[in-house]
Amino acid sequence: MKTSFKILPYWHLFWGKSDSVEVLPLPEIIETENYHLKPIHTPGHSKDHTVFWEAEQGWLFSGDIYLGDRVKYFRADERIDDEIQSLKIVRELDFDSVFCGHHPKEKNGKRGIIRKLDFLENLYGKVEELHKQGLGIRQIMRKMKIRESYFTMLICFGNISARNMVKSIVDSLNEESGSSPSVKQ
């Protein structure tokens, strides 16, 4: 991040130019006068996604691992198998409050994390069942009544879509079975 790097056009549109920045590796614990935050690597939404847990306060600073109990879209680079694994790790932590930029929950935040994990695992199972029947991504979406937001796709140049969510599952299933990445639409 020390040198400039390319970002997607819609990122530039929403957040502006990416500046170079010098970063250091995260310490085991980030300590302040009153708090002790433990960084926990939680890939899925992105390869480098990290949450910060304050055990004594029962707080989880969740970043984008929690946008809500259910999600409708994935970015093209999101990996559902990694996200499910990360949510399982987070589920084992002791916390009540979830602080994120999208849908913070001061109380019962852990329940939201568990509901999202359940949602993703159920979605994964349903897509897996249809994929085993030989259905392609479009057929799976039709069968499951997963609707695409063409407006979202348009403003994000296709990087965010419902199709990406289903494709992430199909790609994960193909990797498990040793097949090539999804090609069947």
What does this structure look like?
By secondary structure, the chain is an alpha+beta fold. The chain has helices at residues 9-15, 80-91, 109-132, 137-144, 150-155, 162-177, and strands spanning 30-31, 36-41, 50-54, 59-61, 74-75, 97-99, 160-161. It has a five-stranded mixed β-sheet, covered by helices on one side. A two-stranded antiparallel sheet has the order 5-7. A hairpin with a 4-residue loop joins strand 1 (30-31) and strand 2. The longest helix has 24 residues, at 109-132. It starts with 8 loop residues before the first helix and ends in an 8-residue tail after the last helix.
Q: How is the topology of this model organized?
A:
Layout: H1 9-15, E1 30-31, E2 36-41, E3 50-54, E4 59-61, E5 74-75, H2 80-91, E6 97-99, H3 109-132, H4 137-144, H5 150-155, E7 160-161, H6 162-177
Parallel strand pairs: 4-6
Antiparallel strand pairs: 1-2, 2-3, 3-4, 5-7
What descriptive keywords fit this protein?
7 strands, 5-stranded mixed sheet, two-stranded antiparallel ribbon, 185 residues, alpha+beta
